[in-house]
Amino acid sequence: MSTTQTFTANIKIGHATDHEHHTGCTVFVCPEDTVGGVDIRGMAPGSRETALLDPVKSVADVTAVLLTGGSAFGLATADGVMRNLSKRDIGHYTPIIKVPIVPTAVVFDLFMHMGQHMPGPEYGSQAVNNAFENAANGKEIEQGCYGAGAGVTVGKWKGIANMMKSGFGIASMKVGEAELFAAAVVNAVGDVVNPDGSVLAGARNRETQEWLAESESIRVFSEFRPSIENTTLVVIGTTAKLDKAGATRLAQRGHDGMSIAIRPVHTMHDGDTVFALSTGDVTSVPFDSLANAAVHCVGEAIRNGVRHAQTTLGIPALNG
∠ at Cα 252 (249, 254), nearest 5°? Predict the structure, then answer.
């Protein structure tokens, strides 16, 4: 099991994983009065409740963010998150009952189980339980093939025969007095690259083990359309104080980190989405310093997602 200690900006993080069928979900349970933003650049995203994060909408607080496998079927996991949080009396206040606000985004991992084992509400509820247990016991956050990262892959620009396994990754740092982290579920058409542009994981020749990008001046798509739908999902959390417009801008800057770490990115076959969450009241950090840190952490979270992945169903991975 690959783990890391990290700053979490007071956000509780938990996975629920179906290791047999290589799917699952990952929840980020927010403290009270968390402000959220989102930037969706994918051509065909699967999502729920993201419209509420628009700065012009009236609801400001976010209860949790959920990333899940199962494609559009996986949106049902959010029901379990909501029910669990409601039982804990956590959510947006209404005169009748607190309603958990749980923006959700999905990745397509149906090929891992041929669409027969999509995660449902029980996975969302279990992820919440695990998030609270992790926070209570100081447990480290699992990276690699866990949660929503259980069934994801990269390097499909040259066809699925040349792809590699990836997963969930996280990275964090302090920015002045503020904490900041980024977490990523990496399911990309493109290769994941090092800071110098060299390939870390992606399309490679299965016989020679050479990166295919090294033999081509530009990554040109295979004559066969990448048939496995793709989406890289990112959550950025910080204790720096932001309003909804600021959180949205931070989510926008998060895509810069995605562009640095994935090539190509934001293609016609990707559904890339970045959430940003502000959980605290640290006002001493200039926004551009915060955003630059977010760019760095997003890139490292994406790289960690492939560094910690393990070979699955014959799909090779860096971690064996």
Answer: 115
User: What is 246-312 written as a DSSP string?
Assistant: HHHHHHHHHHHHHHHHEES-S-TTB--EEEEEEEEEE--S-HHHHHHHHHHHHHHHHHHHHHS---B
Rounding to the nearest 10 degrees, give the CA dihedral for residues 87, 91, 93, 94.
-60
3-class SS string, 119-149: CCHHHHHHHHHHHHHHHHHCCCEEEECCHHH
Tell the CATH topology of 2-307: L-amino peptidase D-ALA esterase/amidase (3.60.70)
Cα separation, 52 vs 37, whole angstroms: 9
Measured in whole angstroms, how far is the alpha carbon of residue 229 from the centre of its chain? Answer: 15
Nearest residue to 112 via CA among 165, 189, 155: 165
What's the rounded Cα separation, in Å, for the pair 142 and 186?
15
pLDDT in tens, 66-120: 999 999 999 999 999 999 999 999 999 999 999 999 999 999 988 888 778 889 9
Q: Residue ranges of the domains in the chain?
A: 2-307
Overall pTM > 0.90? yes
Q: What are phi and psi of 36, to 5 degrees?
A: -125, 155
Q: Which two tokens stand for residue 209?
A: 């083990």
Band (pLDDT 50/70/90 cuts) for residue 1 is very low
155-201 confidence digits (pLDDT tens): 999 888 899 999 999 999 999 999 999 999 999 999 999 999 999 99
Helix (H) or strand (E) holding 193: strand 191-193
Q: Which of 156, 155, 152, 133 is nearest to 143 (CA)?
A: 152
Instruction: Give, in order, the Cα–Cα distances in Å from 100 to each of 3, 126, 172, 200, 216.
Output: 29, 16, 26, 39, 49
Give per-residue burial for 243-265: e unless 16+ CB within 10 Å, then b. ebebbbbbbbbbbbbbbbbbbbb
CB environment 182-201: b (16+ within 10 A), e (fewer): bbbbbbbbbbbbeeeeebbb
